[in-house]
Amino acid sequence: VVNSGGVSRTFLPNDVINNNASANTIADVTGLSFAVLANTTYSFKFFIVYSSSATTTGSRWSINGPATTFINYTSRYTLTATSITNNAGVAAYNTPSGSSASSLTANNICIIEGIIRPSAPGTVIARFASEISGSAVTAIAGGRSYAEYQVIN
Questions:
Q1: Using CA atoms, how far apart are residues 47 and 53, in angstroms rounded to an integer?
Q2: What pairs with residue 28 in β-bridges?
Q3: Is-cis flag, bond preceding 66, omega within 30?
Q4: How far apart are CA 62 and CA 110, in angstroms?
Q5: Are 138 and 30 in contact (CB under 8 A)?
Q6: Which pLDDT tens digit goes with each residue over 36-63?
Q7: Rounded distance, CA 85 to CA 102, Å?
Q8: CA 7/CA 152 separation, integer angstroms
């Protein structure tokens, strides 16, 4: 964890692979998370560089965490070299429910950013799924994937 002017940063310690035998099964990006307290409002932003087994393997990216009184975020991620999937105004965990239909094999990026006010303490964690069973989507560590978060009140 790096703290700079009130903004804290957590880096993904190791690559995390989702190649579940069941398509579109969401899983934690283990290690890419931050702790929250009840009744405290946070802004957050996850930057996740990822790869995909094939351009025909899409993905979905979301978050999970403790009970909240308010949550609103945007999740956007690579579809092709010139387009993205954009899920704006998301107000529930593990959303969207469906994966995109494509991605690049390397150098994809996912950005999830928003505001959360938990009603219970816990951990906010990035999550992802592969569109195709047994076809890997990999969140890349090595200082490229990280979370930024800050108490805003």
A1: 20
A2: 127
A3: no
A4: 10
A5: no
A6: 999 999 999 999 999 999 999 999 999 9
A7: 10
A8: 10
Which residues neighbour 22 within 8 Å (Cβ) at sequence distance 6 or greater? 133
* Assigned token pair, 142: 């090595």
Say which residue the tokens 């995109």 belong to. Answer: 100
Nearest one of 36, 45, 26 to 96, comparing CA atoms: 26
Arithmetic mean of pLDDT, 126-144: 97
Asked if residues 119 and 69 have their Cβ atoms less than 8 Å apart, the reply is yes
Taking residues 71-77, what's their average pLDDT? 98
The span from the CA of 50 to the CA of 32, in Å, is: 13
Q: What is the largest CA-CA distance in the chain?
A: 43
Query: Residue 68 is inside which H or E element, if any?
Result: strand 68-80
* 3-class state of residue 59 by DSSP: strand
Write out the E strands in the chain: 2-4, 7-11, 16-18, 27-36, 42-52, 59-64, 68-80, 83-90, 108-118, 122-130, 137-139, 146-151
Residue 69 structure tokens: 């009184």
For 54, 63, 134, 143, the CA distances from 30, given in Å and listed in that order, are: 23, 12, 19, 15
